[in-house]
Specification:
Layout lengths: L12 E4 L7 H7 L5 E4 L5 H8 L6 E5 L8 H14 L3 E6 L1 H14 L3 E5 L10 E6 L2 E6 L7 E4 L9 H19 L6 H23 L4 H20 L4 H13 L3 H16 L4 H11 L4 H11 L16 H8 L12 H13 L21 H4 L1
Parallel strand pairs: 1-8, 2-3, 2-4, 4-5, 5-8
Antiparallel strand pairs: 6-7
Helix pairs in contact: 3-4, 5-6, 5-7, 5-9, 6-7, 6-10, 8-9, 9-11, 9-13, 12-13
The structure holds nicotinamide-adenine-dinucleotide.
Length: 374
């Protein structure tokens, strides 16, 4: 790596460990909060209520109405509830959908946000909010939406079935992988991304072997924390752009889509990103990173193809068009032909094959070389 980079640190307190959700009340006290609104998805309502009970009389109300991709009307209701209750803090308990709703409450009311994540999505580590209106998801950066405190308790992830854990964990692995070849990679982001990939790759098979193992769940959750940090600290590329299009325009579910597309994008990108490839090979303990990720999808029982997730074959042209409409950083030039090849394999769950065409500005590495490189 060239010795020239920028790195922007971010504030934030992390409390990590089995059973530590019991310390949420102490964390709220530390911040001087007296009236806290707790938001979650309907499916996590019981778990959120149990977690919220540690707030004691600091709990102002529980709002279990979060929905994926934060529909504007859902966000408006939560903001109104926070104002009605005179909330001076918000706690989001759940996956990216709950945290996403908490972020809008924090953005629109100015109260601090605390997060208690129950998936590996990583939203709790970023200052990025999202809201969906008229079928379009808008996103933005705002320092007020970055949780001031995150309590990671692996016991809260025990209820994730292996398939959900696998898809969410591979979603996290995608943050780490794209950080390793990001245009703004730095020594610290590379180290954290490699650590994230190691924890996720080691932990997920342990979760599969024993879903009730708290240490296994803790290993994956630790990887997810590091991966979320990566998401906030580096610019994401083709993989995230494609998944954003598939989720935003075609309504495909977030984590399963990431899990499914990752191997195919890595087969396309890694020949042009040898440093990232080497780091991922070391982290995953393999000579064939895309092949290993593809095998993990099958071993862990994640969704096998984009068709299974609901993408019609005739949508491919539109995805290609959207994913290549604006230029963005990627280790390999993003061409319609390349995206089409990725989607053709992902659509049917075929093994990742890479794609024809130039691998970098000099066009030196081609698909046929991948066998040697990976
Ligand atoms: P999610 O929060 O919608 O959770 C998926 C499902 O799993 C939900 O039904 C939820 O109730 C359930 N669930 C959550 N935790 C569980 C547990 N421990 N046990 C059993 N079931 C559980 O999905 P997600 O993948 O966590 O998050 C996806 C959303 O987060 C998307 O909208 C995505 O855009 C957003 N996101 C935003 C950022 C950001 O930086 N702004 C980052 C990552 C993801």
């Amino acid at each position: 790596m060239e010795h020239r980079f920028e790195y922007q640190g971010r504030p934030g307190r992390v409390v990590f460990g089995a059973g530590r959700r019991a310390e949420l009340g102490a964390e709220a006290e530390r911040l001087g909060l007296r009236r806290v609104l707790v938001v979650t998805t309907p499916g996590r309502a019981d778990l959120a209520a149990e977690t919220a009970s540690t707030l004691g009389d600091r709990l102002a109300g529980l709002h279990p109405h979060a929905v994926m991709h934060v529909p504007a009307e859902v966000a408006a209701r939560a903001v109104d509830r926070a104002r009605e209750l005179g909330a001076d803090g918000c706690v989001a308990v759940g996956g990216g959908s709950a945290v996403g709703l908490g972020k809008i409450v924090a953005r629109d009311t100015g109260v601090p946000l605390l997060a208690v994540p129950t998936t590996y999505a990583g939203s709790e580590a970023t200052p990025i909010w999202g809201i969906t209106e008229d079928g379009r998801k808008r996103t933005g950066h705002d320092p007020r939406v970055l949780p001031v405190t995150v309590v990671y308790d692996p016991e809260l992830t025990l209820s994730m079935p292996v398939r959900l854990a696998a898809e969410s964990g591979l979603n996290a692995l995608a943050h780490a992988a794209e950080t390793l070849y990001a245009p703004d990679v730095s020594p610290v982001t590379s180290l954290v991304a490699a650590g994230a990939a190691r924890s996720l790759a080691a932990g997920l098979p342990r979760v599969l072997a024993d879903p009730s193992s708290v240490p296994a769940r803790a290993e994956v959750l630790q990887g997810a924390w590091l991966a979320g940090w990566c998401l906030a600290s580096a610019t994401m590329s083709l993989h995230h752009k494609l998944c954003h299009t598939l989720g935003g325009t075609f309504g495909l579910p977030h984590a399963p889509t990431h899990a499914n597309v990752l191997a195919h994008v890595l087969a396309f990108n890694l020949p042009a990103a040898p440093v990232a490839d080497a780091a991922l090979r070391e982290a995953l303990g393999t000579d064939d990173v895309p092949g290993r990720v593809h095998a993990l999808v099958a071993e862990l029982g994640a969704a096998r193809s984009l068709a299974d997730l609901g993408l019609p074959a005739d949508a491919v042209d539109r995805v290609v068009e959207l994913a290549t409409a604006d230029p963005y950083a990627n280790p390999r030039p993003v061409t319609p032909e390349g995206v089409r090849t990725i989607l053709a394999a992902a659509l049917v769950g075929a093994p990742p094959a890479g794609a024809a065409g130039p691998a970098g500005p000099d066009g030196a590495v081609r698909t046929s070389d991948r066998g040697r490189i990976a």
